[in-house]
Automatic annotation (TrEMBL):
Protein name (Swiss-Prot/TrEMBL): AP2/ERF domain-containing protein
Classification via InterPro entries: AP2/ERF_dom (IPR001471), AP2/ERF_dom_sf (IPR036955), DNA-bd_dom_sf (IPR016177)
Compartment(s) of residence: Nucleus
PANTHER family: ETHYLENE-RESPONSIVE TRANSCRIPTION FACTOR RAP2-1-RELATED (PTHR31729:SF2)
GO biological process: ethylene-activated signaling pathway
Species, as recorded: Citrus clementina
Domain of life according to the entry: Eukaryota
Zinc-finger as UniProt keyword: no
Similarity comment: Belongs to the AP2/ERF transcription factor family. ERF subfamily.
GO molecular function: DNA binding; DNA-binding transcription factor activity
SUPFAM superfamilies: DNA-binding domain
Biased composition (Low complexity): 130-143
Function: Probably acts as a transcriptional activator. Binds to the GCC-box pathogenesis-related promoter element. May be involved in the regulation of gene expression by stress factors and by components of stress signal transduction pathways.
PROSITE patterns found in the cross-reference section: AP2_ERF (PS51032)
Amino acid sequence: MEGGGCCSTSTSTKSPEKRKPRQQRQHQQQQEKPYKGIRMRKWGKWVAEIREPNKRSRIWLGSYTTPIAAARAYDTAVFYLRGPSARLNFPELIFQEDDLRDVSAASIRKKATEVGAKVDALQAALHAANSESESNSNSNFNSIRLSEKPDLNKFPESSDED
């Protein structure tokens, strides 16, 4: 039997992705994923989840329209799981409003999704306000430009002041 079937002993070549040095892979991942603890779905939503300490299970923190909202939800969860020594995406924005006495997965999920939803709503409102003001400024600019157009059917008026 000749060696052309399924049991070939030829060595397979690694894809160029696997040959990259570790730092280049980390840099590429960092560009794709701007914050820790989040990822982007194929359709553009940002999701956050965190692994429970000493367990294989994960706590689902929600799906958000902006990466900032997902990162804030992650920060809230990691803060309640690991305390003030946790590595956060936005350390200056975490403040402990109330004591979360029940440190169960459900209570952490609830608190994180509340924070994420608030930030998502604020980001959406900010985006809407910016796009509205931009469209208003563009329409004002266009109306000014339209009012300054000369009438090409008239002769120019002379403005001789002697």
